[in-house]
């Protein structure tokens, strides 16, 4: 009895040990990936330190022009003016810490980023006027999640649902129509956006051309919400039109392959209802890739979409990162990337665990 | 269910078939429901029909009504909403569709410009603040790598003026969105008008003459040792290659290509380096010019205000003193140009005539030097709806206009709502001490302020807004002139600063230091400006309803000193450079009278126009109670007025309109209200009203509760609400604004003269000739009082100036002037084709206008007069 009880206990302990070891290794590997990814971003965003030179020139040029354009300084001697220009340039150089070699600053950036201490933006302010990178990013996040979350969820569930149906109607007119329309997804969402704006905002002006809410924003939650809804229609439609057919096509092909497996045919031959076949014999075994796709779609929201947001004047993260790149505001760029990197690492980690739960064949360690 | 169960008795296939039928039916219901829902949604969201500007529905939507501006106070519209829109094409489309009224960005896109010209629903104004040129590398004639640099030779640089066709550049490459420019003076600014006759002569001299350009360049290239072989210039056995650094963001890309093509036609090999501003900077600004990384750079410059004194341009663009950068250090102007530019730069002249003589000479020398080939003054297009009217600035357009809040209206109507698209809204934190200086933020902030003087948007001269008048006294040798009659200008041998004038600030004692304390031996100044504010200036109220006091006038002065004092908790190193400049000239100020308010300011700083001196000296008010909250927050840590200090300390940059600053200000407001705190109480305590602190803090608390921010002013609009993330803000009309709404309406249209010349097509050389000049505006004769002068140049067939003079006003003719050319002058022309060039200078607008008339001189019968 004692021996019999000891055996499962040892097995559990061994499994837990293996699991812990696997998780530690995975976390370390993912952490290393994040570190490398973020440091590469720092190097790229600063062009390996080349940006320092560009910034200095930009500062000198801006200050010199400000002084030249200000009539208050007209009667200063050239020497005095140039001294003042140099003094002002030095203030900005000090503020941006440009005197310190880039290599040391790059490690500072990395150290802060890894600890999620995103610090202060160098050039940009949040819409509300804060220089904290958290505020700058946090302010844009809800708008991005709202727009891209709505569109992506709509696309994801619609395409999975329709694809499942089409996989049972292989060769039907609807199936052929989807195959025929799949190449339309080659055009990006912003491309559809331009035409939608043209038609629905200018030719038949029933929907707004851009922005997140009416101008001025309506008073009251309900009116505000309705206004946001109205402004979401065109960008969501643009994203939907751009992605739905290719998404249906790929899921439909995926389901088609799985629905012709022997065990599915066997289930059908046994006379099981179609709904049950779909749920238990097609969806259940394919849950792992579906969940992977779903989670990656969710974290994909983080990056927003630069051009689509610009076309629709949507105050999201995409345009924010675009502005940050334009301003070469390293802390904001790093902030956006490091959060995305951690989210991605976390998702991958969760997926590793989910795979084991969803698929009994998945095992940790050697058999 | 009963149906299903019966149907299913028929067998599995039958059951499945029925089930499918049911699913199909349900799907149809579902689709029908979705379609109905979609229709309902569209109906619910369908906007009110957009009408063209001026249409009935448009009027109702905008809320504007018929009304007389002279019977209204303050702004002419009830509400203005700013919203973000960075795409010019979309912004114009929205104006045409009626959903927006004004676009606050200058457009340089040719397509949008042509769209606007054809639009029935949109109009536009033009502004002239930008310019383009070719910056030539003057190093050499050999670069460090042995390559030849032809532009080291002034004659070749000068010949580039003849090589380029500026009319083609302005009309074709810029699509009409530019005016040809030849000289280092903007064609839209007053100095150009003052020197219009000289300018016209030089423009004729340096016009497009490709043959002459080729001759000069060939001569000089050969002198450099280059040889022409097979149509190509060779130097030391290698082709002469010209590296053009071409900016790609605007029409300068086409300009660069055009210049490269011209040079290739002359036999040069070209290398076209297309770069953005950021990419080009390290090459032309930071690299050593003698390294030879570039020969020509397509440069561009911007000015957002009318610069009435461009004398500095010669030093800025042609001498090493212009900038500390390597390129400027390579400039080697002639001794004469160097000396004159320095004299002009330090205003080393005593009279207007002396200045004119120096400027004239500098213009000629700068063209001979030609370190820069000026090409065009760019035009910015400012679109607005066809039924909208507002005053734009000739240099800064809408974004640079001070008068837009006072003039913005629907044509012939009052009230209503106007929606203005702006590329950015709330770009950086708003605070009145060291907050945002972004162009568009500043434009919006102006609507909430009531400046004591206003610049004329067409001439740059200042007009009184909140002051009755001013008396300016300058020392005898100061080259200052008065242009308008609302002020006086006197001269004195010496201006002594009285002992009781405040000249410095004692941070510790919190009081001003007087001249008699700091300069016991006395002090003199070059100018004294006595400003008489209008009656009841301090009886006005801030937007939050609190009444103004002298403390509002004095506190900004105190902060000027406090923020530069290292012993003060408000010390800010970023303020020091501008404070040092201020202190170099500042010789003190004092309040001469409290009611009416009269202030006297002493300074050593001189501007050529007395009006500008008054504008620079007149103090303006800031609400001391909101500044007090910022002062408390900065002293205690948490919020900082300037970006630099905020970054240095890691604190928040103070914003009075939104964000994390507001809760901090709330806390300080409560503390200040509880203790009745007044900053710098030793000085300001006596200058606030009796119930000052209580009244002020109660008013601002109420304001914050209602509006959600701390931004108050005394302008024609108040900031009603702020929506930072949505990118919009709402301003509403300040109903307590004291002025009549039509006060500045005369500035909504620049009265640019339209000039035409009529005269004989042929003249015999033995007779004089008369030409008639018609000057009109909007089809009506131009008022004679608005004309400064009508001058003429008579050019012979070679384009050389034969004679010059001034036209006479025709007594009987409305808007008509007459040019009489004497027989001797006609005779001196000889036979052939000639041209009469007319220059009209208006005192209503800085732009001089030109017209020309070609005529032929024929030999007199029997040779008489030849």
Label this structure with key terms.
heterodimer, A: 367 residues, MetI-like fold, B: 866 residues, alpha+beta, Dipeptide-binding Protein, domain 3, five-stranded mixed beta sheet, disordered N terminus
Distance between the termini of chain A: 26 Å
What strand order characterises the main sheet of chain B?
5-12-4-11-9-10
Mean pLDDT of chain A: 85
CATH architecture of the largest domain in chain A: Orthogonal Bundle
Low-confidence stretches of chain B: 1-17, 47-61
For the largest beta-sheet of chain A, the strand count, sense and barrel status come to: none
At the first level of CATH, what is the class of the largest domain in chain A?
Mainly Alpha
Structural class of chain B: alpha+beta
Over all CA atoms, what is the radius of gyration of chain B? 33 Å
Q: Alpha-carbon distance between the termini of chain B?
A: 120 Å
**What is the name of the CATH topology of the largest domain in chain A?**
MetI-like fold
Radius of gyration of chain A, rounded?
28 Å
Residues in helix, % of chain B: 25-40%
pLDDT under 50 segments of chain A (min length 5)?
1-5
The beta-strand count of chain B equals 41
Number of helices in the DSSP assignment of chain B: 28
How does the major sheet of chain B shape up?
6 strands, mixed
Helix and strand arrangement:
The complex is a heterodimer of chains A (367) and B (866).
Chain A: H1 2-45, H2 50-69, H3 78-95, H4 102-114, H5 133-168, H6 173-181, H7 189-203, H8 221-259, H9 262-269, H10 274-283, H11 287-300, H12 306-311, H13 317-327, H14 330-358
Helix pairs in contact in A: 1-4, 1-14, 2-3, 5-8, 5-14, 7-8, 9-10, 11-14, 13-14
Chain B: H1 2-7, H2 12-45, H3 56-62, E1 64-66, E2 79-84, H4 88-97, E3 102-103, H5 110-118, E4 122-136, H6 154-163, H7 166-173, E5 178-180, H8 190-194, H9 196-205, H10 210-224, E6 227-229, E7 232-235, E8 238-239, E9 241-247, H11 252-265, E10 269-275, H12 277-286, E11 296-302, H13 313-318, H14 326-329, H15 335-345, H16 352-369, E12 372-385, E13 388-389, H17 404-407, E14 409-410, E15 413-415, E16 417-422, H18 439-446, E17 453-455, E18 462-464, E19 467-475, E20 487-492, E21 495-496, E22 502-506, E23 511-514, H19 515-518, E24 524-525, E25 527-533, H20 550-562, H21 576-585, E26 586-594, E27 597-603, H22 610-617, H23 624-636, E28 639-640, H24 643-649, E29 652-653, H25 661-675, H26 681-684, H27 692-707, E30 717-723, E31 728-733, E32 754-758, E33 762-764, E34 769-777, E35 780-781, E36 787-795, E37 801-806, E38 808-809, E39 816-821, H28 823-829, E40 832-842, E41 849-858
Parallel strand pairs in B: 2-16, 3-16, 9-10, 9-11, 19-20, 28-29, 33-41
Antiparallel strand pairs in B: 1-15, 2-31, 4-11, 4-12, 5-12, 6-7, 7-8, 13-14, 17-18, 19-25, 21-24, 22-23, 25-27, 26-27, 30-31, 32-34, 34-35, 34-39, 36-37, 36-40, 38-39, 40-41
Helix pairs in contact in B: 6-10, 15-16, 23-25, 25-27
């Amino acid at each position: 009895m004692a021996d019999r009880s000891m055996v499962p206990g040892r097995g559990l302990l061994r499994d837990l040990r293996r699991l812990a070891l696997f998780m530690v290794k995975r976390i370390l590997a993912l952490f290393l990936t994040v570190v490398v990814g973020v440091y590469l971003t720092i190097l790229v965003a600063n062009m390996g330190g080349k940006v320092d030179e560009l910034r200095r020139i930009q500062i000198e040029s801006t200050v010199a022009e400000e002084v030249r354009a200000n009539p208050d300084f007209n009667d200063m001697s050239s020497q005095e003016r140039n001294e003042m220009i140099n003094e002002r340039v030095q203030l900005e150089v000090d503020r941006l810490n440009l005197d310190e070699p880039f290599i040391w600053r790059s490690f500072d950036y990395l150290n802060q980023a890894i600890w999620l201490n995103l610090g202060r933006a160098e050039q940009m302010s949040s819409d509300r006027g804060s220089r904290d990178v958290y505020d700058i990013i946090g302010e844009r996040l809800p708008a991005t999640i709202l727009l891209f979350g709505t569109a992506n969820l709509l696309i994801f569930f619609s395409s999975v649902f329709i694809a499942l149906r089409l996989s049972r109607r292989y060769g039907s007119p609807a199936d052929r129509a989807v195959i025929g329309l799949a190449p339309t997804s080659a055009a990006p969402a912003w491309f559809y956006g331009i035409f939608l704006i043209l038609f629905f905002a200018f030719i038949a002006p029933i929907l707004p051309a851009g922005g997140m809410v009416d101008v001025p924003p309506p008073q009251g939650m309900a009116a505000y919400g309705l206004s946001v809804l109205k402004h979401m229609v065109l960008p969501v439609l643009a994203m939907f039109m751009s992605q739905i057919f290719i998404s249906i096509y790929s899921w439909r092909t995926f389901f088609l392959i799985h629905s012709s497996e022997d065990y599915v045919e066997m289930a059908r031959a046994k006379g099981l209802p179609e709904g049950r076949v779909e749920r238990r014999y097609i969806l259940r075994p394919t849950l792992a890739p579906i969940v992977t796709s779903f989670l990656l779609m969710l974290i994909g929201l983080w990056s927003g979409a630069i051009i689509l947001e610009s076309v629709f004047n949507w105050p999201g993260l995409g345009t924010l990162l675009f502005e940050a790149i334009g301003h070469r505001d390293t802390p904001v760029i790093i902030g956006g990337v490091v959060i995305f990197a951690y989210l991605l690492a976390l998702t991958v980690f969760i997926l590793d665990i989910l795979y084991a739960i969803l698929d009994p064949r998945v095992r940790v360690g050697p058999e | 269910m009963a149906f299903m169960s019966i149907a299913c008795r028929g067998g599995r296939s039958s059951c499945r078939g029925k089930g499918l039928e049911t699913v199909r039916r349900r799907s149809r219901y579902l689709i029908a429901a979705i379609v109905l829902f979609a229709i309902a949604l569209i109906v619910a969201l369908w906007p009110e029909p957009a009408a063209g500007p001026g249409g009935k529905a448009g009027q109702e939507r905008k809320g504007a009504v018929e009304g007389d501006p002279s019977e209204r106070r303050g702004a002419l519209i009830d509400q203005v909403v700013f919203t973000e829109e960075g795409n010019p094409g979309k912004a114009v489309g929205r104006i045409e569709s009626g959903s927006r009224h004004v676009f606050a960005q200058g457009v340089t896109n040719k397509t949008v410009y042509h769209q606007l010209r054809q639009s029935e629903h949109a109009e536009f104004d033009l502004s002239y603040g930008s310019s383009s040129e070719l910056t030539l590398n003057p190093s050499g004639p050999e670069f460090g790598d042995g390559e030849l640099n032809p532009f080291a030779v002034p004659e070749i640089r000068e010949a580039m003026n003849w090589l380029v066709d500026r009319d083609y550049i302005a009309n074709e490459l810029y699509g009409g969105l530019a005016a040809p420019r030849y000289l280092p003076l903007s064609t839209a600014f007053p100095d150009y008008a003052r020197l219009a006759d000289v300018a016209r002569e030089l423009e004729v001299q340096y016009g497009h003459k490709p043959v002459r350009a080729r001759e000069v360049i060939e001569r000089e290239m050969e002198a450099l040792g280059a040889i022409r072989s097979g149509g190509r210039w060779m130097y030391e056995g290698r082709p002469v290659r010209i590296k053009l650094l071409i900016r790609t963001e605007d029409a300068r890309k086409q300009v660069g290509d055009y210049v490269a093509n011209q040079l290739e036609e002359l036999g040069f090999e070209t290398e076209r380096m297309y770069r953005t501003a950021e990419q080009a900077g390290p090459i032309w600004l930071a690299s050593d010019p003698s390294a030879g990384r570039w020969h020509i750079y397509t440069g561009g410059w911007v000015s957002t205000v009318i610069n009435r004194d461009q004398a500095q341009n010669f030093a800025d663009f042609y001498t090493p003193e212009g900038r500390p950068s390597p390129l400027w250090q390579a400039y080697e102007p002639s001794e004469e140009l160097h000396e004159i530019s320095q004299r002009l730069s330090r205003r080393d002249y005593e009279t207007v005539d002396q200045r004119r003589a120096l400027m004239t000479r500098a213009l000629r020398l700068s063209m001979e030097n030609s370190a820069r080939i000026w090409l065009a003054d760019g035009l910015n297009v400012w679109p607005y709806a066809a039924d909208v009217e507002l005053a734009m600035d000739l240099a800064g357009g809408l974004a640079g206009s001070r008068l837009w809040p006072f003039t913005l209206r629907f044509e012939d109507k009052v009230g209503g709502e106007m929606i203005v698209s702006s590329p950015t809204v709330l770009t950086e934190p708003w605070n009145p001490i060291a907050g945002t200086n972004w162009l568009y933020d500043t434009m919006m902030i102006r609507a909430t302020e009531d400046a004591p003087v206003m610049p004329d948007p067409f001439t740059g001269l200042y007009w009184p807004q909140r002051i009755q008048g001013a008396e300016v006294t300058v020392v005898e040798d100061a080259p200052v002139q008065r242009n308008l009659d609302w002020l006086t200008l006197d001269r004195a041998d010496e201006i002594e600063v009285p002992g009781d004038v405040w000249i410095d600030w004692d941070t510790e004692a919190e009081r001003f230091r007087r001249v008699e304390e700091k300069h016991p031996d006395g002090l003199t100044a070059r100018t004294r400006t006595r400003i008489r504010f209008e009656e009841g200036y301090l009886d006005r109220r801030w937007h939050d309803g609190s009444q103004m006091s002298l403390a509002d006038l004095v506190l900004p002065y105190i902060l000027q000193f406090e923020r530069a004092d290292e012993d003060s908790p408000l010390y800010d190193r970023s303020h020091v450079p501008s404070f040092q400049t201020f202190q170099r000239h500042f010789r003190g100020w004092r309040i001469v009278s409290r009611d009416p308010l009269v202030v006297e300011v002493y300074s050593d700083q001189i501007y050529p126009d007395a009006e500008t001196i008054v504008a620079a000296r007149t103090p303006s008010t800031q609400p001391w109670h909101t500044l007090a909250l910022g002062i408390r927050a900065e002293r205690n840590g948490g919020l900082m007025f300037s970006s630099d200090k905020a970054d240095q300390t890691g604190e928040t940059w103070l914003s009075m309109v939104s964000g994390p600053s507001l809760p901090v200000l709330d806390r300080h407001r409560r503390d200040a209200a509880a203790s009745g705190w007044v900053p710098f109480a030793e000085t300001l305590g006596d200058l606030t009203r009796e119930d000052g602190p209580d009244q002020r803090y109660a008013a601002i608390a109420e304001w914050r509760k209602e509006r959600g921010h701390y931004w108050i002013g005394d302008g024609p609009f108040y900031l009603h609400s702020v929506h930072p993330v949505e990118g919009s803000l709402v301003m509403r009309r300040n109903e307590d604004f004291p002025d009549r709404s039509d006060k500045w309406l005369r500035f909504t249209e620049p009265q640019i003269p339209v000039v035409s010349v009529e005269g004989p097509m042929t003249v015999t050389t033995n007779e004089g000739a008369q030409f008639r000049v018609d000057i009109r505006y909007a089809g009506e004769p131009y008022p004679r009082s608005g004309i400064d002068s009508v001058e003429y140049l008579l050019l012979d067939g070679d384009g050389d100036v034969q004679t010059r003079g001034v036209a006479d006003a025709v007594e009987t003719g409305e808007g008509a002037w007459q040019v009489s050319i004497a027989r001797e002058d006609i005779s001196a022309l000889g036979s052939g084709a000639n041209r009469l060039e007319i220059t009209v200078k208006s005192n209503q607008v800085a732009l001089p206008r030109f017209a020309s008339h070609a005529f032929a001189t024929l030999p007199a019968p029997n040779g008489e007069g030849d």
